[in-house]
Design a protein that fits this description.
Layout: H1 2-28, H2 36-58, H3 63-75, H4 77-90, H5 94-122
Helix pairs in contact: 1-2, 1-3, 2-3, 2-4, 4-5
Length: about 120
């Protein structure tokens, strides 16, 4: 139960910080319709999860639930996606890595389109 509370708290904080960083970045750097705010959050999230994963690999404790699963999960799931891909790369599972990236991006985009079309039909 303690782990769930830590994930909850970290996720809430990560989500709020994602919103603040993304909106402020987008206000500072408007480049046509390019989502600079989301890009900054995703890259920053990847750096943070890489740093934390490396640290907790050596020092396993309960804070990984607060910081990795909670904070990074709330901040951006792109960071989790990236660290999983890095793990596949390190384990030389290049075929699975390529398949995972392609399926995630293509099916993710298809799911968004289907979801949007379904929502239009319900309106």
């Amino acid at each position: 139960m303690k782990n769930i509370l830590l994930i909850f708290l970290g996720g809430g904080f990560g989500s709020i910080l994602r919103y603040l960083i993304s909106t402020q970045t987008q206000k500072l750097w408007t480049i046509n319709s390019f989502p600079v705010g989301t890009l900054v959050v995703n890259i920053l999230g990847c750096f943070i999860i890489g740093f934390l994963t490396s640290y907790f690999f050596k020092n396993d404790n309960y804070l990984k639930y607060l910081l990795i699963t909670g904070f990074c999960g709330g901040f951006t799931t792109f960071s989790t996606f990236s660290v999983e891909n890095y793990s596949l790369w390190q384990n030389q599972q290049y075929g699975i890595l390529l398949l995972y990236v392609l399926i995630s991006v293509v099916l993710g985009l298809v799911a968004v389109v289907i979801g949007m079309k379904s929502n239009i039909l319900l309106s």
